[in-house]
């Protein structure tokens, strides 16, 4: 979560109204419903992991063993099996 100064993003009138209720404290303003991003969307992690998993599946189907993939990708054998035997 990123903190921003209220005076740099809110109109002065709104800032003064908020100050009637709270001053000098942190206030969390949630996203609107339906606007929340899924895990990893903002940083690209979701995309990176999806591409990695495709690569793991390709190597497995070319004959590489799960144990070798686990060592190569620094993942547990159980994680590799979930990737390989999961969604095909």
UniProtKB/TrEMBL annotation:
InterPro entries: c-mor_Regulatory_Protein, Homeodomain-like_sf, YraL-like. Gene3D superfamilies: Homeodomain-like. Coiled coil: none annotated. This is Mor transcription activator family protein. It comes from Zhenhengia yiwuensis.
């Amino acid at each position: 979560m990123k903190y921003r100064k209220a005076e740099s993003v809110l109109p002065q009138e709104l800032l003064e109204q908020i100050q009637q209720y709270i001053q000098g404290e942190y206030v969390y303003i949630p996203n609107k419903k339906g606007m929340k991003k899924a895990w990893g969307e903002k940083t690209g992690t979701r995309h990176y992991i999806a591409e990695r998993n495709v690569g793991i599946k390709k190597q497995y189907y070319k004959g590489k063993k799960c144990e070798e993939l686990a060592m190569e990708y620094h993942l547990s054998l159980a994680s590799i099996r979930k990737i390989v035997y999961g969604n095909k």
